[in-house]
Amino acid sequence: MRGGNSDDFCRCQVCLGKYTLLGDEENPRLAMFERSLPFFGCGIGWCCFLLGFLCPLIWYIAALLYCCKYYNRDPRERPGLAASAVLATIFTAATIVALSVLLIIDIL
Fold first, then answer.
1. Is the pTM of this model over 0.85?
2. Could you tell me the keywords of this UniProt record (predicted)?
3. Alpha-carbon distance values, 20 to 2, 24, 29, 34, 41 (Å)
């Protein structure tokens, strides 16, 4: 098969012309997402989300990546980083409430 236009079709007997080429010369950014995500295909965001249950500090690192728009490098990372940022916020609120309650009980 020659050329990289999206109008080219595979001419083999297996495909029978059903599939188009992924590579596009006009938009090279499409080829960037052909590679798999790191951490066994889960991506950095979801890996941080899961590891954050063992060490909540990791959620803050993922939240920092989310705020710095790390997902512009690969948009597939955005959901995992957003989930980690939400959990970092919830963990912070829960910690503040727990410490406030402990401080009030200690004063009484």
1. no
2. Membrane, Transmembrane, Transmembrane helix
3. 12, 10, 17, 14, 24
